[in-house]
Design a protein that fits this description.
Length: about 280
């Protein structure tokens, strides 16, 4: 992996180059091993939190980790095209619009001892802006080359905070063209339901059960690109102990191996059905 400036990352994507890089400010990584009609994203995988914010932050390191999506990059890391955030959503949230990306409160709790200065906010928002410049270039390139592409927008959620039974997998689709993509959505839901887990963990998948797919990442791509389907895919945090901050690597690895088979199959079905190439 090499460190690259934003303009160099964008140039490489436009030129359809094969590369793996971290942004020069270390805010995100991107890998393109091969040009294929799908991409994977883990925008909430990051846990970095710049040091100048530490003393002003009311939330503990554990509280931040609890609301992030740890290991979601590892679940998709073997796919040819992967983009992932490295910074915590508590610094700026890539799944919120620029106007809402820097929190004042987070999950019902004040985030800062003292309000952030505009300079502090701008430093975070520049990284948000740069990430979406790369996303735009990537999707523009894939759509142009293939005529259609699918983006797998990987997230996780705290299933134990719910007071009812919730699915292992949730697909958020409320901002998608349900008529056009109904078949593709259902096929992906069915594929996810087939993923097995060790230790007797039940595998279920539902659509818009816990979350509805209202994230900015999905909305941005959907509003700017008419031939890209974003599948906001959330796994309940069955792969970790939420209260003890312990990751279960055998479950993460199991999910990764199964997605390595199911995800490309789904992407190619979508490509064959929707591409005009």
């Amino acid at each position: 992996m090499e460190k690259l400036a934003l303009k160099d990352i964008i140039t490489k994507i436009k030129n359809e180059e094969i590369f793996e890089a971290v942004a020069s400010d270390y805010s995100f990584t991107i890998k393109i091993e091969k040009l294929v009609p799908y991409a994977c994203a883990a925008i909430h995988d990051g846990h970095q939190f710049r040091k100048e914010l530490w003393s002003n932050c009311i939330h503990s390191e554990y509280e931040r980790w609890y609301e992030e999506d740890p290991e979601t990059k590892n679940m998709i890391k073997s796919h040819p095209i992967v983009i992932a955030g490295r910074d915590s959503r508590f610094e700026y949230d890539l799944n919120r619009s620029p106007e809402e990306a820097v929190f004042d409160t987070a999950w019902g709790k004040e985030l800062w001892h003292n309000p952030l200065s505009e300079k502090m906010k701008d430093k975070s928002l520049r990284k948000h802006t740069n990430f979406y410049k790369v996303v735009h270039t990537l999707i523009e390139t894939l759509e142009s080359k293939f005529g259609f592409c699918t983006v797998y927008d990987m997230h996780s959620y705290n299933w134990k905070r719910w007071d009812r039974e919730v699915p292992t997998w949730n697909l958020g689709t409320s901002n998608l063209d349900a008529t056009r993509f109904e078949e593709a959505i259902e096929k992906w839901r069915l594929s996810l339901s087939k993923i097995s887990f060790p230790d007797g963990i039940k595998s279920t998948s539902k659509i818009n059960d816990t979350f509805q797919g209202n994230g900015y990442f999905l909305k941005y791509i959907t509003q700017n690109f008419k031939n890209t389907l974003v599948l906001a895919t959330e796994i309940g945090k069955v792969y970790c102990n939420e209260s003890e901050q312990i990751i279960f690597p055998e479950i993460v690895t199991s999910v990764e191996k199964q997605l390595n088979i199911l995800l490309p199959q789904n992407a190619m079905e979508n490509y064959k059905k929707y591409s005009n190439k």
